[in-house]
Design goal:
Radius of gyration: 18 Å
Number of helices: 2
Order of helices and strands: HEEH
Largest sheet: 2 strands, antiparallel
Strand order of the largest sheet: 1-2
Oligomer: single chain
Number of strands: 2
Strand content: 5-15%
Amino acid sequence: MRKALPLILLIAGLAIIGFGLREKDQKQVSIDLGKTEIDLGKKDSFFSPYFILGGIAAVAGIAMLATGRK
C-alpha cells in the first residue's frame, strides 16, 4: 500500500507528458512543395502546462519511491 501512491503519481505524470506531446504534434501542419517546405501552426515550447504538471507528478512519484526504500 505504501508504494501505490508513488506508482500512481509516476504513471499519471508520464501519461500527462505523453498527452502533451500528442497535443503539441496535432497543432502543427507541414506542407511539402518539392524543394520548399512550409510549416503552419504555432510552435509550442516545453513550458506548456502539460509538461510542467506531468513533470512535477513524475518527479514526486520517483522521489517518494526513492525515499520509501531504506
